[in-house]
Amino acid sequence: MSPPRRRPGGRTARTRAQVLDAVLAELGERGYDGLTMEAVAARAGVHRATVYRRWEDVGGLLADVLDAANDDAWQPPDTGSLRGDLAALNHEIQDALTAQPPIVAALIAASFRSEKADRAQRRLWEDRYIRCESIVRQAIGRGELPPHTDARRLLIAATAPLYHQLVLLRTPPDPGLPDHAARTAAIAASAGAFAEPPPVGDT
Amino acid sequence: MSPPRRRPGGRTARTRAQVLDAVLAELGERGYDGLTMEAVAARAGVHRATVYRRWEDVGGLLADVLDAANDDAWQPPDTGSLRGDLAALNHEIQDALTAQPPIVAALIAASFRSEKADRAQRRLWEDRYIRCESIVRQAIGRGELPPHTDARRLLIAATAPLYHQLVLLRTPPDPGLPDHAARTAAIAASAGAFAEPPPVGDT
Predict the structure, then answer these.
(1) What CATH architecture does domain B11-66 belong to?
(2) What Pfam families does its record include (chains A, B) (predicted)?
(3) Which residues in chain A have Cβ-Cβ distances shorter than 8 Å to B164?
(4) ipTM of the complex, rounded to two decimals
(5) What is the residue extent of each domain of chain A?
(6) Model confidence over A49-60: pLDDT tens digits?
(7) Any idea which fold A82-190 has?
(8) Nearest by CB to A112, which of B109, B161, B180?
């Protein structure tokens, strides 16, 4: 079930917006280890008891931040070419992962600590990869890709190097990587690497 | 500087081996949150004071486990083809990330918690990617790849989907992924996706 949407003017929705904004601000300033229910309540100007009753713990707060991102109006890029779409997507990912304060990076790190944040982070990724399948459908429609291309594998191949370098290897951002990873995936995809069944002559 | 190698018979080396084995056992059974200096000392049969003096804290223990893995005799696969080598490498990664008890996964998770473990994890990855450059050199030597292929980018493209799915997306292991990600990277590499400068006609 998706959480209630913010309704401007609704008291519950306004409280949620204040609390989630406070979570983002605290997370950006202090990271996961500095995030407390008390600091969030104080910053939001909301009673502590309300925060505990509705979100239970820090994991619940982080999960709700991620769920709030999940019902937004985000749409995948639509540049007119597969390679352009994947490059634009990768630039968005690189920008998000290197933004200051490091909210997205902190939420990913938190998903290793809190089961609730983990489940919410995975819901968010699942939602984004499903939305991005339109990139692959449109490329098939334009004749750029074989009809039975596996959208998920292609999207993961295109985006995984960004996450690998910035989240796991934690190397400084490589300004050329978003375009390079997009070009690599597009070259492999055009050669049928993600087609089902695999290209003739291949095992 | 690399840590001292284990010398069978040396008292210091024996203590280190006992303590690191105890860290692995505790980590496998209890995960990072259950890992304590006291439990490691008790399990290893070593004085607590010795463990504190030599490793300082849990992060120091984890960093030493990772450094111990770093000076081992691991060599990259050598199957006679680029695709075969990358597939064998990916199978090793998938096996390590899905092993029970989940030592490697726990060490990666710990790298989000402890700066010492983070630095040691990155040293280990750096070492492994450097060793794996021989896969690319040999493929160039066999004429499978253009001479100026960027080994690091190719290796990351080949291996990143495994880490992305198992460590970040945390999907169940896909038995076909090691071969598929290897084949995808090999197809792109053969088409010059990792060649420097990029293939003619490309921007």
Answers:
(1) Orthogonal Bundle (1.10)
(2) TetR_C_11 (PF16859), TetR_N (PF00440)
(3) 156, 159-160, 163-164
(4) 0.87
(5) 11-68, 82-190
(6) 999 999 999 999
(7) Tetracycline Repressor; domain 2 (1.10.357)
(8) B109
